[in-house]
Amino acid sequence: MDTGNNLAESLLRTKSPDADLQTKVEGHFRNRNSWANMEISQGEQDTADTLRYEPRGSKFEDIADEYLPSLAEQSKHNMWPPTRVLGFSLALVSMVLLLFFVEISTPKEKEFVARHPGVSFDRVNVCLALLVPMIFLWLFNVVNPNLTAMLPIALLGLYGIADTSKTASLYFNNISMLFVGVFMVATAMEASNVHRRFALHIVSRIGKTPATFMLSFMLPPFFLSFFSSNTGMTALMLPIAMSSMTNLIENADGDEEEIKALKNFEKGLYMAIAYSATIGGTATIVASPPNAIVVNKAEEMGLPDVTFMQWMGSFLPMAIVLEICCFGVMYMTYGRQVTRISTAYVEKEKKKMGKINRDEKVITALFLFLISWMILEEWTSKKWFGTCTINKKIDYSVRNKDACDAIPSAIWSGTFKNGAIALVCGAFLFFIPSVIDRKRNLLNWKMAESGIPWGIIMLMGSGNALSYAFKDTNTTKWIAEFLRPLGDLPFFWLVLIVVTLVAFLTEITSNTATTNILLPIFIEFADQNNRHPLSLAIPCAQASSMAFMLPIATPPNAVVLGTGKVAFLGFVKAGWKLNFIGIACVTIFTCTMCDFVFGLSSPSEQYQVNWACRQPNATMACPG
Predict the structure, then answer these.
(1) Global pTM?
(2) What is the rounded CA–CA span in Å between residue 562 and residue 410?
(3) What are the per-10-residue average pLDDT scores of the chain (624 residues)?
């Protein structure tokens, strides 16, 4: 929850008797991401005891808590509405039924025994007693999704699947460190308003006509979401867009047709900002939690690392195509009736920011260095920092990848991974003094801990825990058996079915939770049907971001709903078109660019270890 901003908003509602303090709070609330522009003396703090400095909490959560009602507003309503009671009841009943009243037997057919020698389904019901209650808790939002994500730490030990130490260790790994480091840098960017300057510059430069005005508000969240929170970027752009549209409507000189066209354009503009941030979240590993979950699964399975360059090479072109389609759909649906536009408010805000300062220059340079290092990881840190394994023994005399590759049957494993790269860059900011605020450096721990997406890390950790439980109890094999009829479908049609299913499922569920649940199943299904283990996992992750029809589908949509300018079902008008465009794009780019980069349709030997055709007593021949 964004504690500082909610307190500031609360003070604005209560109208503090201290006018000077009121002015300061209003200034802070307008510039919600700045730590530098708000100084409160002890006397002022006594005047408004509700206003106090606290960590603002992660604003990069899967669910944007800062847009929920205030505590005062919540107290007027029933904190346990019928849907929450229903979700809790279903979770509790399903847990009891699956633990004590449901028994899943192992098939005795010869074909099954030949496919899965020694496999038993006797403990599948125990795993389902964890999975099904978590689905209900996530679906009905009974408690914060991040709290639900921590349930496996307790329940896996309670069920005897894994001890608590083992489960807890699954919640933090290289990808978690990658998020910590990247969002340290992103938090410093917010504190110095680098992202705001970039956004204002783009809008003021190209927003001259209604079409380019909409496009100029779509581009900053699209690009900034590559390496930052799509929810945070939506929250950054919306106040600028809202002030600009208010200024335009007020200056419409009472022309009813123009006002009507501008109000319709306003709805489309706000949704276009949210959609752009969501689309930008498909382009890189850290842009969206489902992307990171796939990379984490590949690492966990011992597959070759999925690098930044591979992911961007596969899906940056798709993101650009989707952004162009999104602009076309949104402008044709909402913008054609508008005849004139003005960027007066944007120009005024840009002028207020003044010249770029040293803080902004240093942080921008470090940010570009971080991006470059992660993209070129394959030729820099991975090449020089690692271990060479020869016949299952590490040879420490071999110091680089080229020397290791020259030895027959030797395998080089990089040890300085992108999580460490991001952490080094983030830690560097702790040592450079700020010129905006002399009392701190470019980053301090209060700022860092409030910007790090702890909730997302917990959600990704729950995916690791669920995956471990699925594997240990053979639940993935049990579910994959039901999907066997789909195994003979051509790759294109199989991807299309998976993408369509996930895209519409995430309209009503968390995309991170959906990916956590489905990914182990699709990986097992791919292995059983002699396919690349990531052939359905990657499109599953990308499809989880293709939810545009409902405000609950993605956090950026929820932010737009919070403006009160777009009705709950207002997203459907253009969203259904983008859903189908997104499904088509993910399917096509998975079967083309992604297939070319990762070799999904023709996997190499290292991916075929778990294929059904390679198991003892196999009843099928391997393809090719």
Answers:
(1) 0.74
(2) 56
(3) 37 40 42 40 39 34 40 56 89 94 82 75 91 88 86 92 91 86 87 86 87 90 84 81 84 78 89 92 86 84 79 92 94 86 84 90 92 84 88 87 87 86 92 88 89 84 88 87 85 93 84 85 85 90 89 79 80 90 95 89 68 61 62
Please state, in angstroms and as integers, the Cα–Cα distance from residue 74 to each residue in 11, 19, 79, 146, 576, following that order: 17, 28, 7, 20, 32
377 DSSP assignment: G
Give the closest residue to 504 by CA, choosing from 541, 539, 544, 556. Answer: 544
Helix residue ranges per DSSP H, 116-253: 124-139, 145-149, 151-158, 164-169, 174-192, 194-206, 210-224, 230-250
In 3D space, the residue among 442, 476, 462 whose CA is nearest the CA of residue 610 turns out to be 476
Question: Rounded CA gap, 80 and 66, in Å?
Answer: 19
Report the alpha-carbon distance of residue 314 to residue 451 in Å, rounded: 29
How does DSSP assign 157-186, residue by residue?
A: HHTTSS-HHHHHHTT-SHHHHHHHHHHHHH
Report in angstroms the alpha-carbon separations of 7 from 25, 66, 237, 348, 578: 9, 11, 21, 28, 37
